[in-house]
Amino acid sequence: MENRKEKKAHPKRGLWKPEEDMILKNYVETYGEGNWATVSKRSGLMRGGKSCRLRWKNYLRPNIKRGGMSKEEEDLIIRMHKLLGNRWSLIAGRLPGRTDNEVKNYWNTHLNKKTLLGEKRKTIDSITRHDDNIEDHDSKKPRQISHDLDENKEANGDDNVGVRDVTAGAWMERVVRCLDYETTGTPLMMHHNYSNLVFDEEPFASYMDPFVLFEAFGAIDSDVGLGIKSFLP
DNA sequence: AACAGAACCAACCGCTCGCAT
DNA sequence: AATGCGAGCGGTTGGTTCTGT
User: Fold this and answer.
1) How many distinct helices (H) and strands (E) make up chain A?
2) Is residue A24 part of a domain?
3) Is the CB of residue A87 inside 7 Å of nucleic acid strand C?
4) Do A82 and A139 fall within a single domain?
5) Which H or E run contains A18?
6) Which of A8, A90, A190, A196 has a C-alpha 20 to 30 A away from that of A37?
7) Strand C proximal to A101 Cβ, under 7 A
8) Which domain range does residue A132 map to?
9) Which residue's C-alpha is at the least distance from the C1' of B11?
10) Structure confidence at residue A34 (pLDDT)
11) Same domain, residue pair A215 and A134
12) A49 with A134, same domain?
């Protein structure tokens, strides 16, 4: 009579119980991070892999810092957001012990109103959205933009042409990659001539946040630092 | 004390990417 | 080259707690 559906094991949802946390913690300690899809099978947790991953990453992982943000952290978030826009994982990466989710929530609840950046300040994304006729470039993530640029460069056979057409967003991505020089070992700025950078809207200098300069000059190789310094007005 | 609205935050969802096959 | 899968990311939702009346 009633239409009995095949009983499908829907993953449990909602807040995590301490017992579940303990199971997940034990699982990760035994099997390590990753293979989240198999967590429920191996551990008996009735949770989806995504949920487990998120719970581990945002709550159970060692060295997670709980509690309110310090003034320094808050300041850093504001500056990083000015620089990167809503790239929460990148911002969180510079705040030891903080997760992207936490930074995002903190921004949305505390800082967004405070700074009014949400409306008045242009982020990387909004800057690349300067022309409605432009294809869906604004929705592309840095990796994609970077890829586009490489293609552009190849098509023209000229480094400078590709660089000249770069958007602010793509440029920002390159700066971020420079900031990550320590870990990647690839001094990006050394490979390109950025003297032809053109920005359609905001003056270039608006991106020369003292924090950026501090980070860039402090963290990376002096040659690269010099490359960045050459942009200064 | 009771209620409503605001604020907060954990978790979910949809999408994209990178990698293996 | 095409496909599938695991993982990561940012936006959004919804439950809980706080605050004002």
Assistant:
1) 15, 0
2) yes
3) yes
4) no
5) helix A18-31
6) A90
7) yes
8) 124-229
9) A14
10) 79
11) yes
12) no
Q: What pLDDT is stored for residue A143 in this prediction?
A: 33
* Domain-embedded: residue A75: yes
* A12 within some domain: no
pLDDT, greater one: A102 or A225: A102
The answer on A165 and A77 residing in a single domain is: no
Residue A109 CA to nucleotide B6 C1', Å? 11
Mean pLDDT of chain A: 59
Alpha helices in A44-191 (DSSP H): 49-55, 71-84, 88-93, 100-106, 112-115, 117-120, 124-128, 142-156, 159-164, 168-179, 181-184
Q: Is the CB of A60 under 7 A from strand B?
A: no
In a domain, A11, yes or no: no
Highest mean pLDDT, choosing among A114-118, A177-181, A196-200 = A114-118
Q: What is the pLDDT of residue A85?
A: 84
In this structure, are A111 and A143 located in the same domain?
Answer: no
pLDDT for residue A127: 35
- Residue of least CA–C1' distance to C5: A37
As a whole number, mean pLDDT of residues A33-60 equals: 85
Closest nt to residue A123, judged CA to C1': C10
